[in-house]
Amino acid sequence: MSSRTIPVRFWLNGLPVERAVPPERILLDLIRDEIRLTGTKRGCDLGTCGCCTVLLDGVPVLSCLTLALRADGKSVTTIEGIGEPGRLHPVQSAFVECGATQCGFCTPGFVLTAVALLREHPHPDRETIVRAISGNLCRCTGYTKIVQAIERAAEAAP
Amino acid sequence: MSPATASGSPYRLLGGRIPYVEGPLKVTGRAEYTDDIHRSGTLVGRVLRSPWAHARIRSIDTTEARSLPGVAAVLTGEAYPTPFGVLPITHDETMLAVGKVRYIGDMIAAVAAVDEPTAERALAMIRIDVEPLPEFSDPRTGLTRVPEPIHERGLLGSNIQKQVLQHFGDVDAAFARAGATVRVRGQFAGVTHAFTEPLVTIAEATPDGRLTVWSATQVPHYLHRTLHEVLGIPMHRIRVIKPEVGGGFGGKSDPLPHELACAALSLATGRPVKMLFDREEVFYTNHGRHPTQNDVRIAAEADGTLLAYDIDTIIEGGAWSSFGTVTTYYNGVLAMGPYRVPNFRYRGRRVYTNKPPSGAMRAHGGTNIRYAVEVGLDELAEQLSIDPFDLRERNALPPHSTTVNQFRITSTSFRACLRAVRERSGWASKFRRLPYGRGIGLGCGFYISGSNSPIHFTPKMPQCTVHLKADMDGGIAVHCMQADIGQGSNTLMAAIVAEVLGVDLERVHVQRVDSDVSPIDLGSYSSRVTFMMGNAARRAAEGMRRQLVEAAAALLGYPAEQLEVVHERIQVRHRPEVGVDFMGALNRAMEAGGALQSSGAYSSPPMGGTFKGARAGTAPAYSFAAYVAEVDVDPETGVYRPTHVWAAFDCGRPLNRLAVEGQIEGSIHMGLGQLMGESMEYRGSRLMNPSLLDYKIPMPGQMPEIEVLLVGEDDPEGPFGAKEAGEGPLVAILPAVANALYDAVGVRCHAVPITPDRLLKGIDVRRSAGRPWKGE
Q1: Which residue of A has its CA nearest to B118?
Q2: Number of structural domains found in chain B
Q3: Same domain for B662 and B755
Q4: Domain check: are B424 and B544 in the same one?
Q5: Which of B584, B602, B620 delimits the end of a domain?
Q6: ipTM beyond cut 0.85
């Protein structure tokens, strides 16, 4: 544990953030415990479940394995930056309509992974979807309705 | 009875596809789980765990830990000796170890400190002097009297926690005259729930003498009661709140010791305390499916008519009883349906070991025995040259019948399940006809729809109560302690209320479980919620509808009997143009006494025999299933993949098709996990894979195509004809895939998980015995 802190500046859901953090500070801890954006979930602290997924310059990363310093100068998107109740992102609407959430704990990670996928491949085939979400665990749905929801969101895209 | 397969439901909402009411909150990350709650001044709670499997505690010295700056409290077990446990008859746990530790991971001490590093430093300063004791890592070594049993309550000085002996009919005579017999010696590794949200509790003792506890639990009422018993506080001074829960599957259905320790730390410090477990601690808490050895013999006539089951089972309990007495019964009695079995003998023994406790996991007690029976029936069909479907058709329990152990069977669409998957899967052209390496198999299911014998401290009280309140805002608040853990019970409760009252779903607001305002429901376990809460919610809504109809009658000048409730309106049946909208009726009804209130409750009817243990497994209804799985095996490596599953399920009338499908698809995923590789791996008593990296649940690419076929008819007692769909859908998938593997490569696997190396070994053994399979 270091008492030394290093300044880190990044964009969080489009807003500038400036913090002084110890070099070993994990991005997940910074987002959840310090900034208190609790949509990013802590599931395993080991990079196995994907519940803590955030986008770093648009690319999904596991925030529990990412040092906060890595966000310096970059753009971080959490689930709070995707949409909100009443103004859902098409991926979020599709998750609701298809029943792709059950307990919902893995959902933010899946939504972010899917948003990043559809930006890269607006019309992915099933194999591409399955590969994209293979870093996220869901214990409730058997993934069936998650895959359906991503397909539906892709269909809705122009 | 009306068929529930028809596309047109007679109901406005129920029977359709109803998106989960909390969906928008969950997809935006706004749903609030326990760890998302922040109370100012919260201390970090941590626990010290035993590195010993079995040891007597000579002394615990916490002096140094207490004096560490930043430490607010250090607790040990002797101050909290009151035993507890989810079943009132087997209270054998304590909040923290008292006198002995019983497994690696057992909780010894609890610390509250200003931050996590301080708490961890304090734990490292606690000095414990122990006398190591012989450890039991194999249940078979604990079946007779042992010098140092794990618990004093073991049967006759052994480690047997529970023994069940049952015999109905005459099994020996049945075997003596049988035309065919089979024997399956099933071996099942322990598996765990692996819910995504770790265990977490917040407790806050306040100066008004009250204690509030937020916890990730499936059983807020049992937690409430256990907090009272162990901490000695009247129940009315404890408030239990259940935020959103990130999955449970039975793993959050016991009152757990960390929930008590967190509360005790808050009481000791006067400050809020949060205890969040890391994933390794979640694995040590376990309460997963019991490691099981079952020896199942089945006798039948030469025409395939079943004559008898003879079952001997040992299940490994780990360190505590948990639900184990129930599990011991279920491993026998749930073998019975969906077939008529006239003679039945069962010996079941649950044995303590020095390992993390086993408990209830989805399709509790019904999964491993179902596997053995269904694989056995596949072998029996082959022996008698009968198609596996014909064998099951011949033996299907008829509707409105009684089993030999006096289970009351009401609705069953098991035959319809069989017909549906037989046709949809193309069985006739595939069974034993697919090329070597590809196969198809049948497995069937049977499960309770709510336990008729609930864990209840005041047995004459209803199993569920629902309260409704409608006020001048036009919203309807629904209060009930039923625990939505992701299965969609809040959505169902809201939809039932909206259906009965004729209102839009968005008017109905399900309130968070809060023991101060939620009437008691016993919790989310035993697949009881749809059936019991559904009936209670319907009755509560019908009570409110009567008040609204009477008010409308007074307004319209027509007798109440001539009125009907339609969408957002009450009107005269034969003059629909004469009516009043919902708000008009509500405002009139409130003139008498303000906000409307209504209450509904459910108690299951009396049933079952009078012999010892007769109520175990009795339920107001049962679900039935028939699954066909198709697999693709690489015979050179043993690697296999289920490619298609046709899943026919009888849950009566499916009230929310989206949720029922989700339960079936999720159950197939979980069942495939157990079949294909999940396993709690031990070296001696030490758990070797306590992480989601080493305990692997199936990935998206491992899932088959699933076709769900809902073929139930209305159940006579279920709400709107519904039965359970949360657990029963799991049991059929394991034997369906195992039987498909046999069809593919001619190998019977009685040990689960069926890993590629086990399958490959089976192929090698068969080949070296000179038994080619399917033109291999």
Answers
A1: A1
A2: 2
A3: yes
A4: no
A5: B602
A6: yes
pLDDT of residue B2: 37
Query: Euclidean distance between the first and final Cα of chain B, in Å?
Result: 50
pLDDT in tens, B9-52: 899 999 999 999 999 999 999 999 999 999 999 999 999 999 99
Asked if B410 and B513 sit in the same domain, the reply is no
Q: Choose the final residue of a domain: B570, B602, B634.
A: B602
**What's the domain range around B437?**
1-31+396-458+611-776
Do B598 and B670 reside in the same domain of the chain? no
* CA atoms within 13 Å, Cβ hemisphere of A75: 8
Strand duo B751-752 + B180-188: pairing = parallel
Average pLDDT score over residue span B49-69? 98
- Are residues B622 and B722 part of one domain? yes
Q: Is B1 a residue whose pLDDT tops 60?
A: no
Domains along the sequence of chain A with CATH: 6-81 (3.10.20.30), 90-156 (1.10.150.120)
Angstroms from A128 CA to nearest CA on chain B: 10
Residue-level pLDDT at A2: 55
B487 touching chain A per CB within 8 A = yes
pLDDT, tens digit (0-9, with 9 covering 90-100), for B521-537: 999 999 999 999 999 99
User: Min CA distance, A9 vs chain B (Å)?
Assistant: 24
Give B665's contacts in chain A (Cβ within 8 Å).
Answer: 141-142, 144-145
User: Which 298-327 residues of chain B touch chain A by CB within 8 A?
Assistant: none
Concatenating the DSSP letter of every residue in B364-389 gives: TTTHHHHHHHHHHHHHHHHHTT--HH
DSSP-assigned beta bridge partners for residue B306: B300
- The pTM of the whole model exceeds 0.90: yes
Which residues of chain B lie closer than 8 angstroms to A46, CB-CB? 279, 691-693
Q: Is B475 part of any domain? A: yes
Q: Name the one residue in this structure whose structure tokens are 């122009």.
A: A158
As given in the structure block, the two tokens for residue B117 are: 């590093």
Q: Is residue B202 part of a domain?
A: no
**Is B587 in the same domain as B531?**
yes
**Angstroms from A103 CA to nearest CA on chain B:** 4
Helices (H) and strands (E) in chain B, counts: 19, 32
Q: Are B223 and B259 in contact (CB under 8 A)?
A: yes
- Provide the chain A residues 97-126 that lie in CB contact (below 8 A) with chain B: 97-99, 101-108, 111
B761 and B715 co-located in one domain: yes
CATH number at residue B1: 3.30.365.10
B27, B196, B701: residue with CB nearest A139 = B196
Contact A39 B246 (CB under 8 A): no
Min distance A101 CA to chain B CA atoms (Å): 7
Q: Confirm whether B588 is domain-assigned.
A: yes
* Mean local confidence (pLDDT), B60-79: 98
Q: Mind listing the pLDDT tens digit for each residue in B429-484? A: 999 999 999 999 999 999 999 998 877 767 789 999 999 999 999 999 999 999 99
User: Any chain A CB within 8 A of the CB of B692?
Assistant: yes
pLDDT at A1 over 70: no
B109: enclosing H helix or E strand:
strand B107-113
Residue B74 has pLDDT above 50, yes or no: yes
Tell me the DSSP string of B241-266. EE-B-S--TTTT-S--HHHHHHHHHH
Of A37, A46, A101, the CB nearest to B279: A46
Say whether both B466 and B449 belong to one domain: no
Q: What is the C-alpha separation between B750 and B141, in angstroms, rounded?
A: 22
Using the CB atoms, write b or e for B405-419: b if 16+ within 10 Å.
bebbbbbbbbbbbbb
- Counting one residue from chain A and one from chain B, the pairs whose CB atoms sit within 8 A come to 176
Contact A130 B701 (CB under 8 A): yes
**Does residue B668 belong to the interface with chain A, where contact is any CB pair within 8 Å?**
yes
**pLDDT tens-digit series, residues A88-101:** 999 999 999 999 99
* B244:A103 CB<8 A: yes
